[in-house]
Design goal:
This protein is of the alpha/beta class and about 240 residues long. It has nine helices and nine strands. It has helices spanning about 10-15, 20-30, 65-75, 95-100, 115-125, 140-150, 160-165, 200-215, 230-240; strands at about 1-5, 30-35, 50, 60, 80-90, 105-110, 125-130, 185, 185-190. Helix 4 (about 95-100) crosses helix 6 and helix 8 (about 200-215) crosses helix 9 (about 230-240). The protein starts with a strand and ends with a helix. The model has no long low-confidence stretch (mean pLDDT about 95). The structure holds adenine.
Length: about 240
């Protein structure tokens, strides 16, 4: 999968895509991340990318010309262009999964008070938000999208199943997890996990998923995929 990121601050993006799991996926050639400096496409003498808004108003707007030119230079057949914006659709696991099925995503990061509307109307397929708060620019939001989407790309995680086993994959939060030592200064790992009884462990993990979700995100239980057994366990927990 290829992801092109258009920004006036490429230095904010570069280090993040060189590290950890994203960096490994890039090295392996599973992910190609292209960082494009919008400023390089400005036709103006001083390589400006922003100007005052018509009709007045606070702040500056990103000018259409450098963005249209930058978009034109990266676009491919069938690519999907995204503008990071607090006005967009809020990112969910479903949207991340859906985006991961595209061969080429082009992500535009805004700055200042936003971008000229003609860009959004004519060159952007969808707007995505990472939550109801306003960031100083789209770069952090773009990185969140890149990270969340990449996890669904085959080969990016150790096993492709991992993204599907994580929190939210079946609408529930994850069960708590432990590693060695089994006893850390008297803080003990739950006995059942040391028992070697896999059926019992699976049951315990499911119950813990239900308990954790009920405690931290009860709203998720309305839409989670629950079996009859899950419903019984939940009723038992609620009676405690
Ligand atoms: N740009 C500024 N704020 C943002 C947000 N919440 N989500 C996506 N892009 C943004």
């Amino acid at each position: 999968m290829k992801i092109s990121i258009l920004t006036i601050f490429p230095e904010m993006i570069q280090p993040m895509v060189e590290c950890s799991i994203l960096g490994r996926a890039v090295k392996k050639g599973i992910l190609e991340i292209e960082i494009v400096n919008i400023r390089d496409f400005s036709d103006s003498k001083h390589k400006n990318t922003d100007d005052y808004p018509f009709g007045g108003g606070v702040g500056m707007l990103m000018m259409p010309q450098p963005i249209f030119s930058a978009l034109e230079s990266v676009k491919t057949n069938g690519c999907v262009s995204i503008y990071m914006s607090p006005q967009g659709q809020t990112l969910t696991p479903e949207i991340a999964k859906e985006l991961s099925t595209n061969e080429h995503l082009v992500i535009l990061c805004g700055h200042y008070e936003g971008v000229d509307q003609r860009v959004l109307d004519n060159a952007i397929d969808r707007e995505i938000s990472i939550g109801d708060y306003v960031l100083t620019g789209g770069e952090l939001a773009a990185l969140v999208v890149v990270d969340a989407v990449s996890r669904f790309v085959d080969g990016v995680l150790g096993s492709v199943d991992s993204a599907y086993e994580d929190s939210f994959s079946d609408g529930l939060l994850e069960a708590p997890q432990y590693t060695r030592p089994a006893d850390y200064n008297g803080l003990k790992v739950p006995e059942v996990l040391l028992s070697g009884n896999h059926a019992k462990i699976t049951l315990w993990q499911r119950e813990m998923q239900l308990r954790t979700t009920l405690k931290k995100r009860p709203d998720l239980l309305k839409t989670a995929q629950l079996s009859d057994e899950d419903v019984k366990i939940l009723e038992k927990i609620k009676k405690e």
